[in-house]
Design brief:
The complex is a heterodimer of chains A (about 325) and B (about 450).
Chain A: H1 7-29, H2 38-47, H3 49-52, H4 74-86, H5 88-98, E1 109-112, E2 123-127, H6 129-137, H7 139-144, E3 146-149, E4 164-166, E5 169-171, H8 173-179, E6 184-188, H9 199-216, E7 221-225, H10 232-237, H11 243-256, E8 263-266, H12 269-272, H13 295-304, E9 306-309, H14 315-321
Chain B: H1 6-22, H2 29-43, H3 45-66, H4 70-93, H5 103-118, H6 128-136, H7 149-153, H8 167-209, H9 216-247, H10 265-271, H11 274-285, H12 295-313, H13 317-339, H14 344-364, H15 368-378, H16 392-409, H17 413-421, H18 426-446
Helix pairs in contact in B: 1-2, 2-3, 2-6, 3-4, 3-5, 3-6, 4-5, 8-9, 8-16, 8-18, 9-14, 9-15, 9-16, 11-12, 12-13, 13-14
Classes of the chains: A alpha/beta (about 325), B mainly alpha (about 450).
Chain lengths: ~325, ~450
């Protein structure tokens, strides 16, 4: 072999060196990114790869800075078709019951059973992969409601990620909220950022998000859904995705509820917990998401915890009618 | 430690190669042993001790077997098998991993070693240090290939042969070796990280949904995804191992020869996990008489080989069913080849392209109830029990389309051959660097950083 033949090798070696310099430091310096709880993070770093590689992850876990890849938004596609078809529905309903009495003081609401399936027709669901699953495996809701849900959505970025496909290209949730009024807005976010940041910071981010939603949707009833637990087997071994952390964040979310201003906290875990206060092992195969057949539990919890007008006084009676 | 671990790529491997080649050739066996022991000990120090004991007694039995001592051979093999069976039984019954994951690989290497000693196929009866180096050899430790001692003997970087070569020439040889090794290692890494790992996440998504709730098209997509995931995982790992072998001066062992291009199931398994197939052929099938003692003996020998293959993969019922199905398909092919030679190529292809993926479903799902559910979705004659999202097939096909398409392309032998032909071109070097970079990015994103790891 002559030195001429070694050219590729030399070129290769130098490129490797460059790559090493660019990416290698990350390995050498270890994960120093977390702002707090470095011990937990380092541990999680060791434990995570195996089990966590499994769950519903579309190919490359999307990073914030990435140009949107096709698979990233694949999640919303299914709902989008339904959504564009239904977008007119909420608008219509919004015209009648919600917009008509804008001036008079709002009718007092109580939590009860939804009078009928049409209750969700003007509802919007915002969430991460769990809500994506709800849209796919709960046909009752998908037929009625609108879903702005996407894998790996976080509270901080939720309103600003342009992932909703419309005729004018990809839009953010905030843009959509400014265009169309919803009667109810259900939010479930928080599992993705559970491993990082503080509870106080999370609460503040959530509060800011609620403020912006409220600004765009002055009349909507907002439901803060609790972050759903993970199963006991996952919670016991995972330093990040465990129920202790989830419970702390849920307590913070509960404090954000403000019923006077139509912001309610809705505990979903009531419906899916086992006796250990963890996601029931039989309800999930990957320890984080409900399996398809279990989404009906979530729906039932939503249906029986609807905000209905107190004047109707008939939450319980209406239930029999269903 | 795994080959895809950044600690391995950026710390262990460079340091090992540096020390290995800095050591004079006649002493190089020691860094080889030291590095391999360290590699194993970093993951699991206790198993080092067990492996050392196993290695030492196989060394002794090997010496005796080399003198045509049949008793020593039998006792040695029995002991090896006893350890393997004990380890697997303990793992199943008590759930304790008392031996490292690769045990079935190195126990088979030990058995093969004894058999080769007995048959006189080893040129020079090794020193203890050489057998220990062979048994601990880190490139083939975690997941094969099942390297024979005959191949290990051909190592070109140890011993006196190297000692009197001019320095300058030796340095060039080392660089060439490392380049050749990288040309195997990097495609392997990419196959594992860029293809297999992504395909696996699709396969686990199906699991997460619950098999009762997947649509029939998705169920079919699932088994093809799993088939390719398994292939790229194992092939990628074998390529990485071959690359590491080449870097240390060992011959590259070919463990996969584009199995999905095979024309029949029997050919498929001559191309899939070649070293395991060769092991059974040399040490079980041929000694039992192979196919030269009449049809019934051949069938019996095939049955024994497939029974052992099933048991080797695990003691679960599904592995036996898996092996049984393959045995039946191979029998059917033998019958067809004799009676309907014109039909044979067609049926053979169908077996490979549809039958093999179905057998992988049996292989992949240990729980019989879930396996039945899955087959119920593949062949939905009984209707649906769960709630199915009809858009799931399109959703995952578009989401994973790029990986599925790439995986399909690389099943074609010519694609890889084209790369092999052009491996000396500068363009390949650029491609390799790009693949390496992409693999690293993928590793960092999907791997162990919970903060880059938003996935739910």
């Amino acid at each position: 072999m002559s030195w001429k033949n070694a050219c590729p090798l030399v070129g290769f070696a130098s490129m490797c060196a460059v790559i090493y310099l660019l990416t290698g430091f990350r390995f050498l310096s270890g994960s120093t990114e977390p702002e707090e709880e470095p011990a937990a993070v380092a541990q999680a770093g060791i434990e995570l790869p195996e089990p966590a590689a499994a769950p519903e992850e579309t190919s490359a876990p999307p990073e914030e800075t990435d140009p949107p890849e096709p698979e990233e938004t694949a999640e919303t596609e299914g709902t989008d078709e339904a959504q564009t078809a239904e977008e007119t529905v909420p608008e219509l309903t919004a015209d009648f019951p919600e917009d008509d009495p804008p001036e008079p003081e709002p009718v007092p609401l109580v939590i009860g059973t939804a009078p009928d399936a049409g209750y969700f027709a003007d509802a919007l669901f915002i969430g991460d992969s769990r809500t994506v699953g709800l849209s796919e495996y709960c046909p009752e809701l998908d037929e009625q409601a609108t879903f702005y849900a996407k894998i790996s959505l976080t509270v901080k970025k939720a309103l600003d990620k342009p992932f909703i496909k419309t005729e004018d290209g990809r839009r953010t949730i905030e843009e959509m909220l400014r265009e169309e009024q919803f009667g109810k807005i259900y939010i479930m976010l928080g599992i993705n950022e559970i491993g990082g940041g503080s509870t106080a910071g999370f609460k503040e981010d959530y509060r800011l998000m609620l403020e912006r939603i409220r600004e765009a949707q002055p009349d909507a009833i907002i439901f803060i859904q609790s972050i759903m637990h993970v199963t006991k087997s996952r919670s016991d071994v995972d330093r990040s995705f465990n129920n202790t952390r989830i419970n702390a964040r849920n307590e913070a979310l509960r404090e954000l509820a403000d019923e006077e201003h139509r912001i309610y906290y809705l505990d979903i875990n009531e419906a899916v917990d086992d006796e250990d206060g963890a996601l029931g092992a039989k309800l999930s195969f990957d320890d984080i998401h409900l399996k398809a057949a279990s989404y009906s539990l979530w729906y039932e919890q939503l249906r029986t915890h609807a905000a209905v007008e107190a004047a109707e006084d008939g939450g319980e009676d209406a239930e029999d009618g269903l | 430690m795994s080959f895809t671990d950044p600690d391995f790529l950026f710390r262990f491997l460079p340091v090992f190669l540096f020390v290995f080649y800095l050591t004079p050739a006649r002493l190089r066996i020691w860094p080889l042993i030291g590095g391999s022991v360290l590699f194993l000990a970093l993951g699991d120090p206790f198993s080092c001790l067990i492996l050392f004991v196993l290695g030492a007694w196989n060394h002794l039995f090997g010496r005796a077997a080399a003198n045509r001592d049949r008793t020593a051979l039998v006792i040695g093999i029995t002991l090896d098998l006893a350890v393997l069976i004990a380890a697997k039984t303990i793992r199943i019954t008590a759930g304790i991993d008392c031996l490292p994951a690769g045990i079935s690989f190195y126990v088979f290497r030990m058995i093969w070693y004894l058999a080769d000693c007995y048959r006189g196929r080893i040129r020079k009866q090794p020193q203890l240090s050489e057998t220990v180096a062979f048994f601990f050899l880190f490139p083939v430790l975690p997941a094969g290939p099942i390297l024979t001692y005959r191949d290990f003997e051909r190592i070109s970087t140890l011993g006196r042969a190297q000692a009197d070569r001019p320095r300058r020439k030796e340095l060039r040889d080392i660089l060439v070796r490392i380049e050749n090794g990288l040309l195997l290692f990097i495609p392997g890494l990419a196959a594992k990280v860029l293809l297999s790992d992504h395909l696996r996440s699709l396969w686990s998504t199906l699991y997460g949904i619950g098999y009762e709730s997947i649509s029939t098209p998705l169920a079919w997509l699932g088994i093809y995804t799993y088939s390719m995931e398994l292939y790229y995982d194992f092939w990628g790992y074998s390529l990485m191992a071959a690359g590491l072998c080449v870097m240390t001066g060992l011959p590259a062992v070919e463990n996969f020869r584009h199995p999905y291009a095979a024309g029949s199931v029997s050919e498929f398994y001559r191309r899939w996990h070649v070293t395991l197939g060769t092991f059974f052929k040399e040490n079980v099938y041929i000694p039992l008489g192979g196919n030269r003692r009449g049809a019934w003996t051949t069938v019996r020998n095939l049955f024994i080989v497939w029974l052992l293959t099933g048991l080797w993969h695990g003691f679960g019922l599904n592995y036996l069913v898996w092996a049984g199905l393959l045995f039946l398909m191979i029998l059917a092919e033998r019958g067809l080849r004799a009676r309907a030679p014109r039909l044979y190529p067609v049926i053979g292809r169908i077996f490979v392209l549809a039958g093999i993926p179905l057998t992988w479903a049996v292989f992949a799902i240990p729980d019989p109830e879930r396996l039945l559910t899955y087959f119920g979705r593949l062949f939905p004659f009984a209707g649906t029990a769960g709630n199915v999202y009809d858009g799931d097939f399109v959703k995952y096909l578009t989401g994973y389309g790029i990986y599925l398409a790439l995986a399909l392309v690389f099943l074609v032998p010519n694609v890889y051959h084209c790369f092999e032909r052009n491996r000396r071109k500068p363009f390949t070097a650029v491609l390799m660097a790009a693949l390496f970079a992409a693999s690293l990015v993928s590793l960092v994103r999907a791997g162990d950083n919970p903060f880059l790891y938003l996935q739910f």
